[in-house]
C-alpha cells in the first residue's frame, strides 16, 4: 500500500515538474539563443521575461482547438497525446536523483526500477515516433506528410545507432537497469573512459531522437513550415512541444547516467553534480542550435547508415573481443 | 592616387581576395575523405566557440524600443512641422501654394484668402499623412522655410483624420518666443555659408 501511494506521488511529481520544466526549457532556449545572437530574448512579461512561460501557457490553453477539414479526426486528435505520453512514460525507468530520506522514509526518485530499464526507455521513446508520424499523415497537408515521412526515416534509422551504441556499455555492465549502471560506474569509473566512441555515437543519435538542430528535419521551419505541427493549434500543438522538451530533458538525464557516472555514491554533492551534468547536456542542445546548420535529409541518412552504424558495429565487436 | 580613383575601385577593402575553392569530389572515396576531413578538422567546435564567446561577452545590441530610442539625425524626414518667424512669432507660411503644387502624392491641401490688411492669409492647411510619402519636396520648395520635416516618427492613431491637423504641426507660439524653435537641417535648409554667397539679383537682362 505504501509502495502504491509512493509510486503515485512520484508519478504526479514527475509529471508536474517536467511539464513545468518543459515550459522553463522554452524560456531557457529563447534566452540562450538570444544571448548567443547578441539579443535580449523575452524581456517584457515579468522580471527578465520570466513570466513569459505563464503567458505562453495561458495562450496555449485558451486558444481555440481547431480541427481542420479533411483531416482524419480521431488520429489527428490522438497524435499529440502519443508524443507527450510516450515522453513521460519513458521517465518511469530513469532515476532522477540519488535516493534520500524524508521523515524516516527512504525515497528512491525512480518510478519503477525495472531490470530492463534502458530497453524500456528506448522502446517507449521509439513508440513516440507515432506522434509525428500519425499527426503528419492525418493532417491533409503536404508539408506535414513530408515531415511525417522524414520523422519515420530519421527515428527508425537512429534507433539503430542508439541501440548499437548503447549495446557495448550494456555488455560491460551486464544489466539494463540505470541504477545498476550507476552502481557499476561508482565502482569501476565512468563508462565514457571505456567507451568514448559509444558515448559520441549515442550523443549524436540523441539529437536525432529528440529532433534537435543539426538533425531538425522533422519540423524544419524554413522548408516545411512546422512539419507535422503545421495544422495543429492550441494545446494539441502544446502537447507536441511539451513532448519534445520533456524528451530533451530525459535524454539529458540518460546520457550522464549511462556514460558519465550518474550520481555516483549518492551523496548530496553527487546529486548536485548529476544535475550539473544533466544541465550541461540540456544546454548543449540549445548551444548547437545557435551554432550549427541543419544537414540535408539525405546527408542525415548517409551519416546514419554509412558512418555511425558501421562505427557502432565495430565498437560492439571490439568490445566483445576485449571482454573475451 | 588621384581624387576619383577611390571611387572607381569598387572593392570595399584592400583585403579582398578570390577564394581558392577546392575541386568538388566526384568519387565516393573522395567524398568520404572530405567528410572525414571536415569532421575531424574541428570546424564544428569553432562555431560552438564563437557563439559561446558572444554569450560570455554579453555585448547585447538590442534597443528596447519604447523605453530606449536611437537618436535620429537632424535631417530625418518624419512628420512635418510648420515654423514661425523668430522675432514676431507669426506663421512663416505665405500661402504661395508651391508645396501643394509639387506634392507628388497630392496630400497637401491649402486654402488662402486676403485678410483685413489685404495680405494673403492661409485659412486652411492640411497634410494627409496617411498619403504622404515623406519625399521632402515640400520642404525643399518652400521659399520661406515654413514647412519642414520634424523628428516625430511615432504617428500611430485610431483615425485617419488625426493625421491632417495643422495645429499639431505648427510650432507652439510659446516655443518661438522662448527661442526653442529648431530649424530643420535637411531638404530646403540654408547651407552653412549662405551669407558669404549672397549676391544681388541680376536685373540687367
Task: Quickly describe the structure.
The complex is a heterodimer of chains A (324) and B (205). By secondary structure, chain A is mainly α.
Any overview of this molecule?
- Chain A is mostly helical and 324 residues long.
- Chain A contains 13 helices and 2 strands, in the order αααββαααααααααα.
- In chain A, strands 1-2 form a two-stranded antiparallel sheet.
- In chain A, a hairpin with a 2-residue loop joins strand 1 (100-102) and strand 2 (105-107).
- The longest helix of chain A has 35 residues, at 2-36.
- Chain A is globular, with a radius of gyration of 20 Å.
- The N and C termini of chain A lie far apart (46 Å).
- Chain B has 205 residues and is α+β, with helices and mostly antiparallel strands.
- Chain B has helices at residues 5-8, 28-40, 43-57, 98-102, 137-141, 166-169, 173-177; strands at residues 80-82, 108-114, 120-127, 147-149.
User: What structural class do helix, strand and pairing data of chain B support?
Assistant: alpha+beta
Per DSSP, the total helix count of chain A is: 13
Span of the ends, CA to CA of chain B: 45 Å
Average predicted local confidence, pLDDT of chain A: 86
Number of strands of chain B: 4
